[in-house]
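Hypothesis: this fold can be encoded by more than one sequence.
Test: take the structure tokens below, design a sequence, compare later.
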């Protein structure tokens, strides 16, 4: 919030446009933010970092640009059964335009991806694999490095939805060797309406722009337009240079805390909360993968998730209820929705105790 105020009150001018001092200062802040993101995920170049309005727009950008260049009718996009709607709908929309098919790799009862089954779905028509790093419902941490290695053996690029992972665990795009990776600012304590698309330089050079307008052009005539160099050819119009500066500030904050330390502490909270919640009569945890992040989805016998969420809210406890933007996953699990408790580095064991106490009180009421 301090960074947003600083930007609006000291360097608020459109970037990459003017030779005057404020424009130059704002441009330097914006590009420094890009370098911060590059370092945070260890991209090879700042040119591989594209700023968007969120992980959702980042996925839509890849779906539109990649598929229009590299896919033809009958080709397939492979995802998993635990994807967020943002990693389902964009591929469906593009599929309707181009006649593409969406293939879905299954999961087991614990909420773990069946890697062998995913491999069986790969064919000569598979053009891209798009998979979440961590499930926003189940907390399952997918074996993305193995998935990427498997895909690359078949010369298939991979997009990683890291919206639920960059704030919980170390993400190194070069070590993973992923081709695309997306995440949102607000999930890692930055402002809303800002996102990141990482893409390997060769892929970003190969695919066409997603939108047209200012900034993304090199030259424009009424007969023809040539496009700007990376990453600007994907950033049409005035970027949210205020938001990108604030995102960089949030990333610096997380880096100073230490992402490994955050992961260790959140795992302690997850273990503690799991043990406590399993002591609640009639409570069932949805998603029991052996490798999980700090999310617990659960149901309590005889109590609708909305009732549980509403009553917990009256006690000052905020949980998410419903299908969590993952309706196909809910259908596979055979439930209408769940209650989801999410833990971050600012949560405490005392807060977990208050959650359990609140649930027990509601169980008694029912």
């Amino acid at each position: 919030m301090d960074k947003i105020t600083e930007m609006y009150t000291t360097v608020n001018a459109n970037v990459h446009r003017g030779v005057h001092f404020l424009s130059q200062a704002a441009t330097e802040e914006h590009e420094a933010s890009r370098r911060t993101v590059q370092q945070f995920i260890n991209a090879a170049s700042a040119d591989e970092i594209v700023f968007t309005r969120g992980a959702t727009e980042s996925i839509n950008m890849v779906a539109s640009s990649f598929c229009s260049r590299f896919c033809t009718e009958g080709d397939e996009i492979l995802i998993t059964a635990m994807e967020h709607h943002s990693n389902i709908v964009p591929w469906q929309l593009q599929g309707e335009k181009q006649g593409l098919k969406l293939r879905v790799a299954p999961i087991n009862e614990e909420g773990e991806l069946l890697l062998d089954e995913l491999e069986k779905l790969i064919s000569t028509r598979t053009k891209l694999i798009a998979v979440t790093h961590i499930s926003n419902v189940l907390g399952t941490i997918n074996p993305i490095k193995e998935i990427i290695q498997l895909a690359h053996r078949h010369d298939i690029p991979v997009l990683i939805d890291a919206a639920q992972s960059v704030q919980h665990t170390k993400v190194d795009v070069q070590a993973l060797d992923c081709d695309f990776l997306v995440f949102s600012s607000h999930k890692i304590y930055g402002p809303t309406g800002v996102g990141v698309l990482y893409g390997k330089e060769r892929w970003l050079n190969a695919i066409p722009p997603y939108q047209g307008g200012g900034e993304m052009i090199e030259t424009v005539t009424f007969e023809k337009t040539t496009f700007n160099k990376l990453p600007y050819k994907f950033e049409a119009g005035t970027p949210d240079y205020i938001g990108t500066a604030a995102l960089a500030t949030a990333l610096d904050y997380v880096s100073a805390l230490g992402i490994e330390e955050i992961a260790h502490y959140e795992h302690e909270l997850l273990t503690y909360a799991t043990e406590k919640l399993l002591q609640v009569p009639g409570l069932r945890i949805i998603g029991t993968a052996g490798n999980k992040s700090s999310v617990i989805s659960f149901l309590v016998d005889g109590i609708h998730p909305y009732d549980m969420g509403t009553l917990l809210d009256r006690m000052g406890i905020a949980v998410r209820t419903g299908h969590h933007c993952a309706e196909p996953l809910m259908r596979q699990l055979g439930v209408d929705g769940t209650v989801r408790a999410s833990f971050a580095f600012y949560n405490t064991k005392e807060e977990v105790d208050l959650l359990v106490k609140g649930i027990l009180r509601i169980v008694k009421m029912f």
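The first strand starts at residue 49 and ends at 52. The radius of gyration is 22 Å.
Hypothesis status: open.
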